[in-house]
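Data availability (excerpt). All sequences and predicted token strings are deposited with the supplementary files. A representative entry, Transcriptional regulator, TetR family, is shown inline so that the format can be inspected without opening the archive.
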Amino acid sequence: MKPQTKRKKQAIETKEKIFNCAVALFAQNSYENITVGDICRGAQVSVGAFYHHFKNKESILNEGYHLFDLQLEETWSQHHPANELEAIRFLVAYQMQSMQQMGSLASSQYFKNQLTNEEKYILNKERFFYKTIYEMVQRSVNGGSLFGDAYIITEDILSTCRGIIYDWCLHEGSYDLSEKGRRTLDMVLNHYGK
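Structure token line:
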């Protein structure tokens, strides 16, 4: 692999700076009330730099899903439980913690984005999050710790998680998302573990 040039590193840092600033602003105020100018001022970059890295505000939200998968994949490669059911819990906990750290207002912006976006990356079966949960479910079915169709079980896990996050956003983050996510995931796993 070729080492990154100083210019490439600076470009990556600028993109991350814009992204992080935008997410912080989305956590404080409604997405619709934040302008590209607000993001640029907060990130201390030019409007030209913004448009060099992002097509529009919506593309920042799309980038968030991609970054989540990249960060999860890196974390997964460094450490994850060997037991398949614990690995599923690990993946879902990572998702819940990520949303909780972002805050309910910013999380709700991501959900709104996916409702109107043609790409619907959140449903993409090729993303790391989906593929890894599916793989762990399939292994659990093959090993006899879960019973049923791996695809249906995976879809039930993911749709339940999305529902919990949506509910948490509706309640403006008033409860511990990670704790509720853990309890609800256990209900799904127990249902298929019979």
